[in-house]
């Protein structure tokens, strides 16, 4: 018979299809007979389409040839289709079936493409889809029976008899049949409303088949690759009974990207079908995408279009006609990494993924909108722990990738998060909005199983891009850069240990292949420094970045962009370290951080405002980095110098400024003078070395130095460096001695040591020191230690010392102890001390403790003590206790105690105190007095208690008393009742007139 020839389907854009009427036969060996007729698919929901659709595996044409006779003409078919049709042929009634190999003219690509677009409607409108696994073999009947029993079992887990080794093996062989691997079957069962499973002579409802397989899934736990193939397919078959009558205007639930992720490992005779077989199931509108079935275009073109559609139309893609792999280059962000993964079971074949996000803004947005726990559809490539979640430029959905030695493999190209409970955000971030966080991804999308587990916790799967795409760029330099970017991305996921180990390994490898001076090694070292920074190992990062900068300057130049970028990274590290150590400054530093870093990167002029802020709030490392930039980019201004002086915890910044820019013309003499006043020791030393002639030594400068920090060291530097220009005289010493700054004693000591031999210490100098209420004691001691032999102590010094509220006691003792303080001066000192109404008593006692041997009590001292209205009695008592023999009661002493000598304002009590003191003096020293008529006159006329005083004196004098007529007359006149006391001593009364002897004469009794 002649071969069958297809009639054209007209018009080609209609919904007309061919259906096969399979003729009945009771003879099972009879040739297959059938008729093809055109059939318009109706869209009405009321009409039932009385045909079945066959889902099967074509099989090879290498088997013994088979044919079917269509309208009497022969048409070659595969052995598997022949067996399926024999199995479906009825004994009595013809059977209307849609079979792709027969109902589509496979030789006409245009018709083939159009008919494929109708396949969703064909399978969706069929009364039943028949899934034909093939003929009975390898205990398939046993496998299907075990599945049926498991489905019928009410227990969630199957009975032990179903889990026997033979049953498990038979089930595994059934599930490994080619039908489960074929791409087209997904659409065929994914749109069906009723499914019948046929294998050999056994028939089973599709839902029952899925229920049984799900219950027996535990026996497949060691076959993850098989699970990834059958689980999505089983899920589609199970859902058939829940699908409503097909409506051609409806779309699927999943995007094309999701479907590709799920099923790209399924097989197809023609690669194009791996895409076309899924179009009818997707939720996307594809009319203008260039993805509609067209077998005339090369596979490489279709693959590019697919990737552009899923990701972005401007994506850089390399693809090939002879392989199911593409290389994609794209900018993008790292969102985080997969920290845990759990596969769904039974009715829920998805993947339960927990994502650990990094701290980037876009990552936070995803976490805010979708949370950290994602439920994803099953995928052909199983997600693994530590896989990376990223967002490629222009893509609307994240992508999950896996790191390899020098590239990334795509695990899921389109992660659709619409099923999350969090509301999806409408934001889309461009790469330019956060450039610091973007990376360059080199991606390989390879359809087929790829390595999954890391060989160790610190080692990536051992696969390079050239093992996937052998002819891809493979020079050592390019390999180094590819590896560099992988490490940077790993770091951004938070897997710092892995990134560090990889970078160290890559650096060693590059040094071996390219040489230690190769410039690409610097990029790897810079990446390693960024890993150190991410783990807060600041010093290690700083040292490595400084090494990179030095090498870049040698190899590329100071102003090369790579060098500037490295300097920017170092400055960024310094600022971040400051923020971490001082969180309170975070907001302030953010205010100028961006401008500063951008100026460094662009090699542009840094505004004075930014430099001032950097000087005030950042340490000297940043300042040194900035001054090391191109000279014109950083100006040394008065405001900058003042900012440095305000911020100094030490003078490191000022030293750096002077070392780098001291000789610049913009550093004026006024600025030099300001620096000299406000800098520290090291800066002073540098200033004298660099600008000695401009340092003007003035009293104002010395004052500023003296009150500043490190004052002694700085003063020493000035004295050494500019000694000839400093006139250290008594006037300057006096000025310094008056200052209250903490370092003044040490400065005075320094000045005296270095220049004291040529200085005469004047009264003015000592007075200034004595009057210094903060440092007087120390300065006075130092003055006398250095030039005590040349200092003349004056009353003004003593008076000033008594007025020093903090150091009067110690200063007085110091003055009193000096060798040049003669008896007269010591008398003056003691007179001043005992006359002090506030502290005289205390100081007197202290002097006796330490200087008693040098103390001589004179009449003037006793009188001065008596006249101290508050502490006089106590001091006299003390002197009587210590030096009674030195105290003589003279008329002058008595007058000091008399009523007439009392101070204005003295109370009656004070007056009585005076009289009591007189009585005490008579008690202690009355026997040693030379009593004269003047003595008696003072007692009778000026004492508060004359009777008692006279009686006590007469008692103490006894036989020594020389009584004169004048004394008797004065007593008779003033104290007649006491004249008897004198009369009892009539033998002592001298018979001569009072005028014959001087009334004021005073002689010692012995």
From TrEMBL:
Domain Heterokaryon incompatibility: start-end pairs: 51-188
Organism superkingdom: Eukaryota
InterPro entries registered for this protein in UniProt: DUF7104 (IPR055530), HET (IPR010730), HetReg/Transcr_Mod (IPR052895), TPR-like_helical_dom_sf (IPR011990)
Protein known as: Putative het domain protein
């Amino acid at each position: 018979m002649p071969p069958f020839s297809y009639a054209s389907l007209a018009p080609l854009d209609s919904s007309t299809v061919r259906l096969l009427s399979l003729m009945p036969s009771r003879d099972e060996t009879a040739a297959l007979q059938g008729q093809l007729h055109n059939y318009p698919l109706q869209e009405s929901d009321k009409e039932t389409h009385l045909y079945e659709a066959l889902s099967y595996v074509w099989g090879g044409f290498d088997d013994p040839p088979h044919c079917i006779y269509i309208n009497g003409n022969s048409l070659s078919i595969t052995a598997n289709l022949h067996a399926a049709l024999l199995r479906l042929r009825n004994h009595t009634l013809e059977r209307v079936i849609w079979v792709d190999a027969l109902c589509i003219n496979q030789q006409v690509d245009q018709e083939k493409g159009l008919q494929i677009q109708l396949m969703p409607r064909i399978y969706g409108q069929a009364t039943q889809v028949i899934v034909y696994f093939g003929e009975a073999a390898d205990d398939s009947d046993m496998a299907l029976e075990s599945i049926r029993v498991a489905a019928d079992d009410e227990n969630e887990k199957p009975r032990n008899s179903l889990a026997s080794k033979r049953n498990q093996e038979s089930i595994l062989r059934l599930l490994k049949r080619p039908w489960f691997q074929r791409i087209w079957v997904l659409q065929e069962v994914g749109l069906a409303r009723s499914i019948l499973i046929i294998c050999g002579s056994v028939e089973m409802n599709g839902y029952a088949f899925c229920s049984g397989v799900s219950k027996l899934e535990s026996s497949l736990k060691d076959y993850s690759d098989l699970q990834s193939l059958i689980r999505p397919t089983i899920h589609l078959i199970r859902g058939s009974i829940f699908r409503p009558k097909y409506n051609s205007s409806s779309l699927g639930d999943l995007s094309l990207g999701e479907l590709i992720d799920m099923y790209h490992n399924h097989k197809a005779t023609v690669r194009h079908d791996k895409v076309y077989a899924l179009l009818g199931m997707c939720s996307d509108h594809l009319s203008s995408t260039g993805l509609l079935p067209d077998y005339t275009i090369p596979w490489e073109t279709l693959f590019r279009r697919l990737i552009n559609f899923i990701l972005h139309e401007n994506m850089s893609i390399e693809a090939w006609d002879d392989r199911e792999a593409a290389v994609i280059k794209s900018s993008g962000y790292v969102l985080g990494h997969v920290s845990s993964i759990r596969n769904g079971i039974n009715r829920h074949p998805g993947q339960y993924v927990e994502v650990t996000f990094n701290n980037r803004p876009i990552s936070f947005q995803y976490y805010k909108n979708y949370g950290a726990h994602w439920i994803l559809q099953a995928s052909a490539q199983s997600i693994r722990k530590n896989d990376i979640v990223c967002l490629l430029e222009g893509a609307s959905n994240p992508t999950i990738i896996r790191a390899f030695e020098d590239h990334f493999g795509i695990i899921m190209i389109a992660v659709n998060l619409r099923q999350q409970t969090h509301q999806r955000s409408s934001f889309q971030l461009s790469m330019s909005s956060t450039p610091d966080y973007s990376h360059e991804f080199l991606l390989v999308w390879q359809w087929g199983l790829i390595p999954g587990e890391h060989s160790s916790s610190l080692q990536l799967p051992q696969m390079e891009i050239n093992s996937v795409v052998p002819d891809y760029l493979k020079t050592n330099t390019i390999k180094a850069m590819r590896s560099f970017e992988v490490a940077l991305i790993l770091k951004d996921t938070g897997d710092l240990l892995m990134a560090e180990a990889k970078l160290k390994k890559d650096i060693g490898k590059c040094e071996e292949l390219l040489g230690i001076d190769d410039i690409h090694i610097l990029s790897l070292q810079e990446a390693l420094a960024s890993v150190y920074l991410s783990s807060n190992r600041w010093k290690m990062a700083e040292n490595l970045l400084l090494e990179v900068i030095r090498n870049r300057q040698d190899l590329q130049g100071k102003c090369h962009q790579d060098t500037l970028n490295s300097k920017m990274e170092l400055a960024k590290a310094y600022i971040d370290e400051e923020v971490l150590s001082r969180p309170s400054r975070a907001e302030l530093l953010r205010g100028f951080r961006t401008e500063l870093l951008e100026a460094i990167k662009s090699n542009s002029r840094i505004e004075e405002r930014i430099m001032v802020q950097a000087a005030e709030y950042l340490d000297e490392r940043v300042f040194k980095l900035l001054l090391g930039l191109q000279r014109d980019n950083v100006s040394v201004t008065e405001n900058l110098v003042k900012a440095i002086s305000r911020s100094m915890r030490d003078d490191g910044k000022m030293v750096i400024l002077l070392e780098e820019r001291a000789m610049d013309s913009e550093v004026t003499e006024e600025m030099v003078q300001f620096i000299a006043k406000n800098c520290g020791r090291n800066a002073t030393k540098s200033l004298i070395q660099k600008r000695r002639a401009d340092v003007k030594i003035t009293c104002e400068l010395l004052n500023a130095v003296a009150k500043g920090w490190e004052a002694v060291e700085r003063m020493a530097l000035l004295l050494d460096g500019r000694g000839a220009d400093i006139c250290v005289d008594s006037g300057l010493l006096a000025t310094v001695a008056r200052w209250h700054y903490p370092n003044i004693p040490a400065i005075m000591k320094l000045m005296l040591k270095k220049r004291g031999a040529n200085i005469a210490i004047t009264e003015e100098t000592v007075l200034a020191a004595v009057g210094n209420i903060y440092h007087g004691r120390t300065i006075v001691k130092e003055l006398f230690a250095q030039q005590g032999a040349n200092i003349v102590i004056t009353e003004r010094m003593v008076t000033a010392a008594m007025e020093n509220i903090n150091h009067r006691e110690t200063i007085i003792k110091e003055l009193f102890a000096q060798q040049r303080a003669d008896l007269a001066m010591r008398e003056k000192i003691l007179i001043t001390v005992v006359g002090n109404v506030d502290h005289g008593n205390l100081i007197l006692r202290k002097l006796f403790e330490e200087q008693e041997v040098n103390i001589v009590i004179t009449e003037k001292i006793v009188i001065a003590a008596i006249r101290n209205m508050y502490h006089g009695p106590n001091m006299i008592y003390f002197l009587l206790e210590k030096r009674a023999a030195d105290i003589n009661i003279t008329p002058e002493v008595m007058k000091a105690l008399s009523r007439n000598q009392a101070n204005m304002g003295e109370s009656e009590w004070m007056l009585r105190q005076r009289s009591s003191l007189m009585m005490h003096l008579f008690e202690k020293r009355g026997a040693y007095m030379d009593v004269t008529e003047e003595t008696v006159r003072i007692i009778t006329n000026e004492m508060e208690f004359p009777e008692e005083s006279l009686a006590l004196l007469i008692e103490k004098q006894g036989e020594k008393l020389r009584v004169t007529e004048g004394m008797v007359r004065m007593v008779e006149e003033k104290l007649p009742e006491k004249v008897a006391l004198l009369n009892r001593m009539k033998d002592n009364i001298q018979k001569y007139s009072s005028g014959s002897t001087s009334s004021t004469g005073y002689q010692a009794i012995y």
